[in-house]
Amino acid sequence: MSRTYTFFIHLRALPAWLALAREKRAEFSTQKLEPIFEKYSTVKVRWYDVEAFSTKASDIAVFETISLQDYYFVIDAIRDSEFCTVPYFEFVEIIPAIEDGYVEYESSLEKLWTI
User: If DSSP states are collapsed to H, E and C, what string results for the chain?
Assistant: First the structure.
């Protein structure tokens, strides 16, 4: 059974990022981040802005994958980039999750009960 892992990554934009012109931010995303995501195509990413609603994080990135190794490599590549080395952002919290994980658990219990 293929399992999809989801990671909710809370990020905080730092002054170095906020000082960049919006065109430079878009250029960074295109030139630095997109190649990472293209290399590890099993990892899908969505971005959410939360700075108007939270003082702890400014953004939430949602990573979904069936490959923990690819996810791990994506995070290492991001950490090696200016995203973390300038730094433009800091990781506040990473929350891993399995969508409807209880369904698989309950199915495993049913198998035990039928033995």
Answer: CCCCEEEEEEEEECHHHHCCCHHHHHHHHHHHHHHHHHHCCCCEEEEEECCCCCCCCCEEEEEEECCHHHHHHHHHHHHHCHHHHCCCEEEEEEEEEECCHHHHHHHHHHHHHCC
